[in-house]
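Repro case for the chain-ordering regression, as requested:
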Amino acid sequence: MITIVAKGVVKEENINKFKEYAQTLVEETRKEKGCISYNLYEDINDPKIITFIEEWEDQEAIDAHVKASHFVEIVPKLRDLQESETEVNLYKRV
Amino acid sequence: MITIVAKGVVKEENINKFKEYAQTLVEETRKEKGCISYNLYEDINDPKIITFIEEWEDQEAIDAHVKASHFVEIVPKLRDLQESETEVNLYKRV
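-- result from build under test --
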């Protein structure tokens, strides 16, 4: 299993739009083969910090995910709403 | 529910010691009231990046956690093995 944490800082005026686009991404991604869980989180102390925590069966599932039409269409829109680059880490359980 | 992501960068020579201390922290923390899950992860591409992902019932459980003897004893030791401060975010599900 691979766990991904993808943390972004969204421009304050774009928070609602970001959540709206992200919601579609969440719904479509959960239907993908190899997606164990895929959830969106907001920092309790700073609503501009919005993070995906994702669990995938293997790298093959992630490779397919980043080519899926919902990913290709929505992720660039999310990036445009952010203040800075997304911080992405791929993890294995220790 | 509150999800915590606590990301640290460990000095290369300290990685094994960090995991050893962290393992005790994981075992003891999982016994705590209000702890839903508590897991340790290592970045697939950089083993110096070690991250806790934690799920807690509420803030009260977190307040008790940071006062627990295993936390008070082990966390300062973990910090001493790191290159930099831990990046901690407390999240709610969107």
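Ordering looks correct now. The two ends of chain A are 11 Å apart (CA to CA).
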